[in-house]
């Protein structure tokens, strides 16, 4: 019934519930379904980008380029839609393709030239952020009818609550991702590769294809997240999503994914994102606390989860040995 | 000649010289240095002055990378130390008092040392991957810096503090002397004693070096502490240069520039070998590149794109499989039979 491997996820979920309960206890108006749904609305893009990051980290790598990729996506979309008058139905598939190609290229460099993912995606981060500024150094506001309708449409739920279209996209993405991770050959390859790349090669798994696909997936997710972010912000700007890669990594880690690869669950990532959202909501409800407390609290959480994981894994390995 | 090109400084120095020559072609008075009020002025002096924080951070980063680690938190440490120094000065009645300035500097350096120690403890005793261990401080550090400055930019009016980053000694910017001092200390510590060898040994295989009798944990901790201290010095130079502390933007991206400088200087990210002089040249290359981009009128934002390509090219050159694929393709065209032999050369 209870498996030890689910312990980190349990802790994350418990932490999320505890924080939400604490918020509900302390602030009037906190305990409502809409506050919970707002967490999803405000963090839909973070959730999507964290999905890609989860795959990358489970595979034993890291992707630092995601935040810049989001900015680049908003920038390309805004300039094409707003300045050149392209249809959103061409622009959105195009930016998704650009994101996937970008990720694919990084994956290929990482695999074929055997350079650390950290460095390659760092270069990718510089490149994407720089390309934003090549397009424009100013904010491009979007007032295209399609984008504004995507931003403003509320999907009403029973009880007078609502969610946005972005939430639907994010939820579909996470369900798909759970399916891919646990029920497809690609998913199993990712876990195997993260567990031990050497063994994966010896088992005859196509490590090259898997590794490149993982980064392609992450690139695609960050572009999709960029599209959702465009709906959210209705503008393209080179400084959008600055430092979001760290939030995504933090969400994945808080969700119980091992940074050494091989172990992790997308459900955990979901709650990792939600936990970050709750911290922000509590801080905004508190009013007197400023936004930089978010960073400190997330840093502390990151620290405790890493130490926690460390203790779990060290006990597991020592038990085996 | 072959010996010359094999030297680890050959490519970095060539790159730096090429960049400088390009600048000279573009603006003929690039190399001219004037004396105004007893101070030297000129583009070269500017490069040294503005590059000082980066060089200092990169020196600390070199030793960390030599142990097969990386320190992502240096940017945050820069922001925190600058914030603490400026806050201390700002709160005192006499901002220019000797004791106050000294106190501000010592307090921030001690704090930087503690932050470095924290990273080192996580990496060595905690056994956490360096990227992740330092990520914690990178995320939380900006928050701490903003907490110290209450989210505002603290300005100070203290000529004595300002001297650290903007003053000049014997015609040269004072920051250049700080850089030289740290560089010389680092070189003496690592090359005139066995410490450098120990660091490289820990970077190659920390378990094996522990079994060989090296205190690998102590080495790791001290390397991160030194890197934190270097970041603290950089923070002081930066904040005193502009006489203000900005928790949000001070030292932003400096960790990436520093890593880049180290890698350009020939130190491999895989650890086990390091070149402090290479790092010095690498940091100068980055600063010259930035100056060049400003000078030729390209929007400064494009610096990022240029840097991205520099990172990629440098890493590709360092990558063994990339060199091998280039090398073997050329070889196989010439004579197929000799590839087996030449591989061992």
How is the secondary structure organized here?
The complex is a heterodimer of chains A (about 325) and B (about 350).
Chain A: H1 7-26, H2 33-58, H3 66-83, H4 88-112, H5 117-135, E1 140-141, H6 145-152, E2 154-157, E3 161-164, H7 165-183, H8 185-195, H9 197-202, H10 207-233, E4 235-236, H11 244-254, H12 266-286, H13 292-320
Antiparallel strand pairs in A: 1-4, 2-3
Helix pairs in contact in A: 1-12, 2-7, 2-8, 2-10, 2-11, 2-12, 3-4, 3-5, 3-10, 4-5, 4-10, 6-10, 7-8, 8-10, 11-12, 11-13, 12-13
Chain B: H1 2-6, H2 10-26, E1 34-36, E2 39-41, H3 43-66, H4 74-91, H5 98-124, H6 130-148, E3 153-155, H7 159-166, E4 168-169, E5 172-173, H8 174-191, H9 195-204, H10 206-211, H11 216-242, E6 244-246, H12 254-264, H13 276-295, H14 303-318, H15 320-334, H16 339-342
Antiparallel strand pairs in B: 1-2, 3-6, 4-5
Helix pairs in contact in B: 2-13, 3-8, 3-11, 3-12, 3-13, 4-5, 4-6, 4-11, 5-6, 5-11, 7-11, 9-11, 12-13
